[in-house]
Amino acid sequence: MTQVIVLNGGSSSGKSGISRCLQAVLPGAWLALGVDTLVDAMPASLREGDTGIGFAPDGEVVVGPEFRALEAAWIAGVAAMARAGARVVVDEVFLGGPDSQERWRAALEGLRVLWVGVRCEAGVAAGREVARGDRIGGMAASQAESVHRGVVYDLEVDTSRAEAMTCARIIAERVAAQAWTV
Amino acid sequence: MTQVIVLNGGSSSGKSGISRCLQAVLPGAWLALGVDTLVDAMPASLREGDTGIGFAPDGEVVVGPEFRALEAAWIAGVAAMARAGARVVVDEVFLGGPDSQERWRAALEGLRVLWVGVRCEAGVAAGREVARGDRIGGMAASQAESVHRGVVYDLEVDTSRAEAMTCARIIAERVAAQAWTV
Amino acid sequence: MTQVIVLNGGSSSGKSGISRCLQAVLPGAWLALGVDTLVDAMPASLREGDTGIGFAPDGEVVVGPEFRALEAAWIAGVAAMARAGARVVVDEVFLGGPDSQERWRAALEGLRVLWVGVRCEAGVAAGREVARGDRIGGMAASQAESVHRGVVYDLEVDTSRAEAMTCARIIAERVAAQAWTV
Amino acid sequence: MTQVIVLNGGSSSGKSGISRCLQAVLPGAWLALGVDTLVDAMPASLREGDTGIGFAPDGEVVVGPEFRALEAAWIAGVAAMARAGARVVVDEVFLGGPDSQERWRAALEGLRVLWVGVRCEAGVAAGREVARGDRIGGMAASQAESVHRGVVYDLEVDTSRAEAMTCARIIAERVAAQAWTV
After folding, report:
1. pTM to 2 decimals?
2. What DSSP designation does D35 have?
3. Catalytic: A36?
4. What's the pLDDT tens digit per position in B90-116?
5. A34-58 pLDDT, tens per residue?
6. B131 touches chain D (CB under 8 A)
7. Is C166 near chain B, with CB under 8 Å?
8. How many CB pairs under 8 A join A and B?
9. D31:A81 CB<8 A
């Protein structure tokens, strides 16, 4: 049975909506954790400035060394939750592309992981960013393609073409299929 | 020139997303106000119980007399804002159908109003309700059809078939066309 | 009977807590509205930039002409709500001191208004700003004194020395006393 | 050097404010995690009903077996974050008193932990619960004493008598003192 589902997609691509739908349609109780959980847990000083996370005027996100250090511990902790028996949906933005994926892959070693790419056309994601009303403009467009470059998935969904619930059902079917064949 | 745009639609139909997009694409500065603003301004005691707003187990919303009294004053105040020169997008749920519309129509007398129906298929809205993760289950499905019954619109959009930004552009075009012809 | 209570105080002085407590202890149902409601209703473009609201690096708030225009209509609308029968607690930050008060006084002409100063020592407010974790640093200290300069009150409370609920009870007693003597 | 600070206190006792202040005054970057983070990560279905978390009409919180299972994995994961090098402030409500503490103590075995009791008089906490405006009434009073019964602390603070920032400085001094003596 799948123990961890990693959703990777750009800002406003619809990851957290899929995550909530997965919690509703998957059998059993799953935790939904993600980069937003981590950022909320960071000190305010790391949400800006050179050592934490910063937002360039065009929406690009820049991450500093102290952010990276806490993130590494966070990833180790989420992996430990899965090893302790929790099933976890991780909602991530691989700003570093394959390097980001490698950090998670190493930490999740030995666990059954489903890697899911959450695609959304840049223009559609940019529109949703405006519709949310509380996001820094430009992040959606800036990340739409870049976070997927070089990343390897078991499955991809596209929220420009399907509702979050539909995407969740596709992912849940794959989880069920894996449960039978393993 | 249009002074007030009233968006009416069920819970999770996407009204507030359209409202935010309208603020971005319409010329000039528009205020975005709605029933959520009003509910947030109510005393906690009116958000439950017999005299305020209540939620039945199936997601149906029940509104009591004290809620109605504050709502009437709220509507009068929003109309006064438009008369004082603000352009306003109102994001509403006409639980009472044509009676609700009549309350707004009477208060907005003499103002140039665009009435917009925000449709969303019940199943799609119910899925989005799950995706949001913080809504009372059942409201979306319960309201999807009922809030439109007997209500008259200048324009209707359907968020099951178009993004919030696309719906906003359609509405903005109508606003621009009215500005020319009046 | 008092129809409008205007609470004026700096950021993190505890106005909104007093407002919520007033809704709980005052007889009847009161609406709680304030500058945060207005800012949330503004277009995203006005929450930054030269024509809207801006935050200087030291936490000072700068307000532009388009913000002022929408604010004037907002104030007129809140006054209209009170004239239409709603009792309203207004939670404000008089960045312009007596000029800000004059704008409200003119709009509330003919209504029975209680003007309340919400004081909080700068150091205490700055600490609470940190404790909230989501505020721009420096606003609390920058506003603690300046928003009261030249403003005239019926009553003042100090949240450095009393809990929000205690302050609310003091205000409610004054409202009750006015109800008897008028 | 202290690796984990566990803050235990009832609802509305001011734990999260102290946690944010600790992040600001402690040397280095600390993660702030707590029971609210866990509850947000749970499926909506576990936030109500027999197997998750429930709220009795008097504000008492009832926790079911599926909640407990995810919580156990969560605690193991937070401990793993600390072992991986993150310093963590944990913001907790020991509904089970000493049993709750024992669950954390076992998981944190081998780590340097500072146990802090966050006291707040029941009446004061109940007032703050009203002031927050979004809490279920009765939780603050119901938990004010019960969560401390049988729990052993290195240090206690009382937010009825001191601001969050003052409490944070007291805790930070103890952390600094321990750094010297160990």
Report:
1. 0.94
2. H
3. yes
4. 999 999 999 999 999 999 999 999 999
5. 999 999 999 998 876 667 777 777 7
6. no
7. no
8. 58
9. no
pLDDT in tens, A91-136: 999 999 999 999 999 999 999 999 999 999 999 999 999 999 877 7
Where in chain B does DSSP place strands (E)? 4-8, 30-34, 53-55, 61-63, 87-92, 113-119, 155-158
Percent of chain B with pLDDT over 90: 80
ipTM: 0.93
Pair type for strands C155-158 and D53-55: unpaired
Give the largest CA-CA distance in chain B. 48
CB contact under 8 A, B37 and C41: yes
Chains that touch C (3 or more CB pairs under 8 A): A, B, D
Cα–Cα distance for residue pair C74/C33, rounded to 1 Å: 11
Do residues C157 and C118 make contact, with C-beta atoms less than 8 angstroms apart?
A: yes
pLDDT tens per residue, range A156-166: 999 999 999 99
Q: Which residues pair with C87 in a beta bridge?
A: C30
pLDDT band (50, 70, 90) for residue C181: low
CB C2 within 8 A of CB C26: no
Which of D24, D66, D77 is opposite residue A43, by nearest beta carbon?
A: D24
